[in-house]
Specification:
The protein has helices at 10-30, 35-49, 55-73, 75-79, 83-93, 100-120, 129-143, 154-169. By secondary structure, it is mainly α.
C-alpha cells in the first residue's frame, strides 16, 4: 500500500493558528518584550488574508513560527533564569548594548530584584502610596548596581520600566502572572 503525502489545507493552517494563539498569549502576558512575536504572527496572518500566499505556504510559515516560539519558551533554561527573572532581564536589555560580562551582571541583578521583592509585595501594595514608594525605592537600590552603560538617560528609564512591569504583573496578595 502506498501512502500519499497530503498537502496542508486551510483547516490545518487554522488549527495551527489556534495553537499559536493559545501559546503566544500567556508568553506575552509574562514578558511584554515578546510583543514582537505577536506582531510577526499578526503580520503573517494578514499577509495570508490579503492573498500573499496560499494555505500550504501559510502552514509552512506557521510551523516555522511554532519552532521560534518553542525556542523562546526554552530561553529561561538557556539564560539560567526563571520566567520572572527573564522578564526583568529582557526589560533591562531593551535599549542598551552590553558585553558578556555586563550581561551576566544584569542577570544577577534581575535575580536579586525578584528575590528581594517577594517580601515587599504585601497585600494591596498598589493601593498605598507608602508601599508603592517602598517598591520603587527597592527597584532603584537594586538597579543602582547596573553597569555604567546605564547612563543618566537610560537608568531612570530602566527603573521606570521595571516598576511599571512590577505594578502590572504583581497585583499583591501573593498573586502574579507567574503563579499558576
Amino acid at each position: 500500500m502506498v501512502s500519499r503525502i497530503t498537502t496542508p489545507k486551510q483547516s490545518d493552517a487554522e488549527r495551527l493558528k489556534n495553537i499559536i494563539e493559545r501559546k503566544l498569549q500567556p508568553m506575552i502576558m509574562r514578558n511584554r518584550t515578546r510583543q514582537d512575536l505577536q506582531q510577526k504572527f499578526m503580520d503573517m496572518v494578514e499577509e495570508y488574508n490579503l492573498g500573499a500566499y496560499n494555505a500550504e505556504e501559510l502552514f509552512r510559515r506557521l510551523e516555522e513560527f511554532i519552532h521560534e516560539l518553542n525556542v523562546e519558551d526554552k530561553r529561561t533554561v538557556k539564560e539560567g533564569l526563571t520566567e520572572e527573572e527573564l522578564a526583568i532581564f529582557d526589560l533591562l536589555l531593551e535599549d542598551v548594548t552590553l558585553s558578556d560580562k555586563e550581561r551576566t551582571k544584569v542577570k544577577a541583578i534581575a535575580k536579586m530584584l525578584i528575590s528581594n521583592m517577594q517580601d515587599a509585595l504585601v497585600i494591596d501594595w498598589r493601593k498605598k502610596q507608602r508601599t508603592k514608594a517602598k517598591i520603587k525605592n527597592l527597584i532603584e537600590e537594586v538597579l543602582d548596581e547596573l553597569p555604567e552603560a546605564y547612563d543618566d538617560d537610560l537608568w531612570p528609564k530602566a527603573c521606570s520600566e521595571v516598576f511599571m512591569h512590577v505594578y502590572e504583573k504583581y497585583p499583591g496578595q501573593g498573586q502574579s502572572v507567574y503563579v499558576h
